[in-house]
Amino acid sequence: MSLRLVDELRGSVSATLRQASLISVVALALVIAAGFLCAAAFVVVLDSYGPVVACLVLAGVFILIAMIAGVIYGVRKRQMEARARRQRARAANLRAAHLLADPLVLTTGLQLARSIGLKRLIPLLAIGGVALGFLATRAMAQDAPDQAPAE
Question: Which of the 8 DSSP states describes residue 102?
């Protein structure tokens, strides 16, 4: 049984290594091709306009590529931060729901209701609910300060 598992793992690792080596060969070939394309573009512009203009044109092209990559990076970073905020909020909501479903919390609540009495406990629960609602709206207001109010 364990030998079969080791053989499967060895086969999986070797297949992954083969794929990685093929991908690295493809990436290397693409980098070399891009280098020759840049050299060809440089020669074409050099023959037409001279060496200074050729260097400036290729520098401009690479600056443009860098700017586009920077904008894409910024957009992706903002999307990831928004996704992380949503996941934190979802996790906080789940923690609160799990807290109320905890048997220890329910048992403590029942013992508290028995010892204090239900008629005295209802006003305390109402005050606690109002305080909890106030804290929840305050926490949501602090999480989203950059949102403008609807008009």
Answer: -
